[in-house]
Amino acid sequence: MEGQFRTWKKEKKTNIVYDDVSEKKKQGDDDLVDVLLRFQDDGIQIPLTTENIKAVILDMLGGGGETSATTVDWAMAEMLRNPRILEKAQDEVRRFFDDKGGYVDESRIHELKYLMSIIKETLRLHLPLPLLLPRKCREKCEIDGYEIPVDTKIIVNAWAINRDPKYWRNPDCFEPERFLDEDLEVDYKGNHFEYIPFGAGRRICPGMAFGLANVELPLAMFLYHFDWKLPPGMKHEEMDMSESFGITARRNGDLFVVPVIKRPLPPPVK
Ligand code: HEM
């Protein structure tokens, strides 16, 4: 960021940044950085350094962007591979938002039970951080007869847990319906150790609500406004669903799809 800033300075482009900031100030339009800087100025109980602010922004971009984007990509890929699921999800989303004048927004999005179950199933099979994050053990403990000394680095294989046949019927199949079953009460909050896409306990992902919103809204919009087709010659049952290794477990290769507009954006409300 600082490098970019220097380049801008050389090119005398910093005015763009300052103009934008002062324009926003005029409009009283605060973003996250404005709020954090205000906390810094006002002096809260815990001092907030500029380094802290930079770290928060880095966490937001690093932790938040790739994880949500990977989830949207996997959900779309799974639906395209399973046209029955895609059609059922589109029916639900279109019925719901047609009644609201064609505006897809977040209010009451959680009433879309089938879409929510697709997202849950996507995060069961394709959790973006399959090994969560490495942690250090603070106290000596014993797990399954193994003694774990203090300071041992712990890696939790959440990928394997989320596919364990002891807890999941047809564990490797993409079956969103399993989450509609009222007997299967699992949520994201780390209360059910057989399902931990966001981790669990005091180090559970702090961006969970934001991350889910970043997945729910784009998917609802994609499904509502467009029909989706695979490029000519590609068969849905032949799609490559293998994973690659990186910051997150993305699909191997990019997803190529052909969107067909079905419901254009309605004119803005005056
Ligand atoms: C679908 C979206 C997301 C998924 C699946 C996800 C998943 C995870 C997982 C599995 C962990 C490790 C938890 C553990 O070790 O027990 C984690 C940690 C973290 N996540 Fe997320 N995350 C998502 C979105 C976000 C967003 C949007 C943000 C920020 C805006 C974020 C910020 C963080 C941070 C800062 C940590 C480290 C927390 C700590 O070490 O105490 N995540 N996330």
Automatic annotation (TrEMBL):
Keywords of the record: Heme, Iron, Membrane, Metal-binding, Monooxygenase, Oxidoreductase, Signal-anchor, Transmembrane, Transmembrane helix
One Pfam family this sequence matches: p450
PANTHER family: OS06G0641600 PROTEIN (PTHR47953:SF19), OS08G0105600 PROTEIN (PTHR47953)
Topology of the protein relative to the lipid bilayer: Single-pass type II membrane protein
GO-annotated cellular components: membrane
Recorded superkingdom: Eukaryota
Molecular-function GO terms, alphabetical: heme binding; iron ion binding; monooxygenase activity; oxidoreductase activity; oxidoreductase activity, acting on paired donors, with incorporation or reduction of molecular oxygen
Main location per the UniProt record: membrane
Name of the protein: Cytochrome P450
Amino acids binding heme: C205
Cofactor(s) for this UniProt protein: heme
Location in or out of the cell: Membrane
Family of the protein in this entry: Belongs to the cytochrome P450 family.
